[in-house]
Write a structure and sequence with these properties.
Elements lengths: L9 E3 L2 E3 L3 E3 L15 H12 L4 E8 L11 E2 L6 H13 L3 E7 L12 E2 L13 E2 L2 H20 L4 E6 L4 H6 L14 H19 L5 E6 L10 H13 L4 E5 L21 H15 L5 E4 L6 H9 L5 E4 L1 H5 L3 H6 L53 E5 L3 H12 L3 E5 L8 H5 L6 H17 L2 E3 L6 H9 L2 E6 L3 E3 L5 E2 L6 E4 H5 L8 E5 L3 H12 L3 E5 L10 H13 L3 E3 L4 E4 L3 E6 L2 E6 L2 E4 L3 E3 L3 H8 L2 E4 L9 H14 L1
Parallel strand pairs: 3-4, 3-13, 4-5, 4-6, 6-9, 7-8, 9-10, 10-11, 11-12, 12-13, 14-15, 14-17, 15-16, 17-29, 19-24, 20-27, 21-22, 21-27, 22-23
Antiparallel strand pairs: 1-2, 18-28, 24-25, 25-26
Helix pairs in contact: 1-2, 3-5, 5-6, 6-7, 11-13, 11-19, 16-17
Length: 651
């Protein structure tokens, strides 16, 4: 599809943008701990502005900080934050983009040890601490804080403000009947539940004046039984526009089911477009076509889909968050006809796992496919002063990334993969029915390796003899990226015959068949995915883990699998070590006793171990080498690509 509408100028209130592409307010978790924006955050935002985006939003800012702890979030809670934010707006606008900022308040899920608050004192599924209900005076205090923050944003040079009223944070909690059980003027009826947000909008509008653009990112449907439904969400959008809002960015979902608010690979592209289209239709009927801007969001990173959304009137603007996080050159590549070179978002949501990664602590949000995020100035690919012949052993993610980066720097690179395909462990990780976004990453690497001139050899295991020959032929360095292999089940086996034991990766790749009764051992991603797949085929499935099911996984993804496991009747056994295999099935220790699970097939998904040895041969031959990826330390895709990128830049 020809990209045309996306490039047209567009207006939000009094602000005219050069095109209809917006870089969404993204939580980069890169504040300084005191609420100030950091230089590396500014540089990262500049990188998005530099490549043609019409509007660049800063990360969301607090209007008020209960308990006084900012964590990694920036702030507009006092005038002291204005100068640093003015540096940001000056630099973004110098690159031809408008500058915006999102203002919000959390209530629950606070950073630090602050006392959480909500419309009502009730238990939420996502945290054990029960928040206290805000007093009416405190609500008035928040309204004032939002208005004061809006004035500071205007004084800091921002061109537009987005009010955060979505995803189950404080303002949207008041809008939802699920979380708002109040009986005063701020709860109960539709008008009362709207009151806090409406008063906030009116106060902000009065504070910044009638000609300053103000939009709301609004949850129009909680996607939760007993929560806000779309018909009321559309009514809220309309009433907020009557109160002075110039546009609505249409969101959905709430943090009670956190997987609904940050669409992973499981969700289809453009999954929120129907909500945006319905809001736009109603606002057009009430205020006139195009009078109030509707910003579409969520999985719109395919250029043709973004264009289609605009051409078919599902939105007036397209907001891209993760697609521009993964590749800030998204728009130039689209305009140059190089869409297939875009580093696409995988929907893996590793950008939400930074806090659980010790190696990346205090480094802010990390992206699986863009290891340059938040270090854009220092992590650019620069030509090598001394190009060499380099051999990369292993065609998994770390090996491919290292080979690609080395070639882009001017080295002559050979990539040898022992198997018949590139991808390593990622082949199995991307095999699932809904893993199309994962699979495209392998195609991307294949194309980019070819463009960079990497010589790829499949079915080509590297050994000491080959290394000796390659050294004689001029190879001067080796990257060992030989990856990992699945662990085998080790336990007592009772009797001469037990159920067949197969690997989870083989089930996902349809290389193994299973009987009617299956016990899956290992409750992380592979185990859960296998259990869902087999249960969907009508098999009787039990899922067993020595720890908790889904322990250490991202709840924004594992929550989906847990829902599917429950719906498909999979029996779940957490904290249940496997004791032995028997002729009838599997014995587990569960709730202080030995229990037997009948099984025709046992599927193992119990992790992997490094494949090593080549580095010893390299050392023996006196060849410089780097050991990376799973061959060095078992990790995930983010760690593998990051290590490959770092090796490629420094070898």
């Amino acid at each position: 599809m020809e990209i045309k509408k996306l490039l047209e100028p567009g207006r939000i209130g009094s602000l005219e943008l050069k095109n209809r592409l917006i870089y969404s307010a993204m939580g980069l978790n890169s504040g300084d701990g005191r609420g100030f924006i950091t230089e590396r955050t500014i540089v990262s935002l500049e990188e998005r502005a530099r490549h043609g985006v019409g509007l660049v939003y800063a990360p969301g800012a607090y209007c008020h900080v209960p308990g006084g702890e900012h964590g990694t979030t920036i702030s507009l809670s006092s005038d002291e934050y204005i100068p640093s934010l003015r540096r940001l707006t000056t630099r973004i606008k110098a690159l031809g983009a408008a500058a915006g900022i999102q203002i919000g308040a959390r209530g629950t899920r606070l950073e630090g040890n602050g006392q959480t608050c909500a419309p009502s004192s009730m238990r939420f599924a996502y945290e054990e601490q029960i928040p206290r209900a805000l007093e009416v005076e405190e609500i008035s205090g928040f309204v004032t804080a939002f208005a004061d923050a809006a004035v500071r944003a205007r004084e800091a040079g921002f061109d537009i403000i987005e009010l955060h009223a979505c995803t189950g944070k404080l303002l949207s909690m008041f809008l939802s009947p699920y979380s708002n059980h109040r009986t005063d003027q701020y709860g109960g009826s539709y008008e009362n539940r709207l009151r806090f947000v409406r008063e906030t909008v009116e106060a902000m509008r009065h504070a910044v004046g009638d000609d300053f653009p103000l939009v709301v990112r609004l949850t129009v449907d909680d996607r939760l039984e007993g929560g806000l439904e779309e018909k009321d969400g559309i009514r809220i959008a309309t009433d907020l526009c009557r109160a002075g809002v110039d546009g609505i960015q249409v969101s959905a979902g709430t943090q009670e089911r956190i997987w609904n608010i940050s669409s992973c690979y499981y969700y289809p592209e453009g999954n929120l477009l129907p909500f945006a289209a319905h809001v736009r239709h109603e606002l057009g009927n009430v205020f006139g076509e195009g009078t109030k801007a509707v910003i579409a969001m969520s999985k719109l990173g395919l250029p043709g889909l973004a264009e289609k959304a605009l051409q078919e009137g599902m939105g007036d603007f397209v907001s891209l968050g993760r697609p521009l996080l993964t590749d800030p050159e998204w728009l130039p590549k689209v305009l140059a006809g190089k869409e297939d070179s875009i580093r696409r978002c995988l929907g893996c949501l590793n950008c939400f796992t930074y806090a659980r990664r010790p190696a990346l602590r205090n480094m802010g949000t990390a992206c699986t496919v863009n290891p340059a995020l938040l270090r854009e100035n220092t992590f650019r690919i620069r030509s090598s002063d001394t190009p060499r012949n380099i051999l990369v052993a292993g065609g998994g993610l770390s090996g491919m990334e290292a080979a690609l980066t080395l070639a882009q720097r001017g080295h002559a690179v050979e990539l040898h993969e022992a198997g018949s395909r590139l991808g390593g462990q990622w082949i199995a990780a991307s095999a699932g029915e809904r893993k199309g976004e994962y699979r495209q990453l392998l195609h991307w690497y294949e194309r980019e390796l070819a463009r960079a001139g990497v010589a790829v050899f499949l079915n080509s295991p590297v050994n000491g003899s080959m290394l000796a020959d390659k050294i004689a032929a001029g190879v001067r360095a080796l990257v060992v990226a030989t990856g990992a292999e699945p662990n085998e089940l080790r336990c007592t086996r009772l009797g001469s015959r037990q159920p067949e034991v197969v690997q989870g990766v083989d089930v996902l790749l349809n290389r193994a068949t299973c009987g009617k009764r299956v016990v899956v051992i290992g409750g992380r991603y592979i185990g859960m995915e296998v259990a869902v797949k087999l249960a969907g085929e009508g098999k009787s499935v039990s899922l067993v883990d020595a720890a908790h099911i889904a322990q250490g996984t991202n709840p924004r993804i594992s929550g989906i699998y847990l829902e599917q496991l429950i719906k498909r009747g999979v029996a779940l056994f957490s904290e249940a070590p496997v004791m032995r295999l028997t002729p009838e099935g599997v014995d587990i220790a569960y709730l202080g006793a030995l229990h037997s699970l009948p099984a025709d097939t046992v599927v193992t998904a119990i992790g992997t171990h490094s494949v090593r040895g080549l580095e010893t041969e390299a050392a023996r031959l006196g060849l410089e080498y780097r050991l990376i990826g799973d061959a060095r330390h078992i990790g995930d895709a983010l760690e593998a690509i990051r290590e490959g990128a770092e090796t490629g830049r420094t070898l």
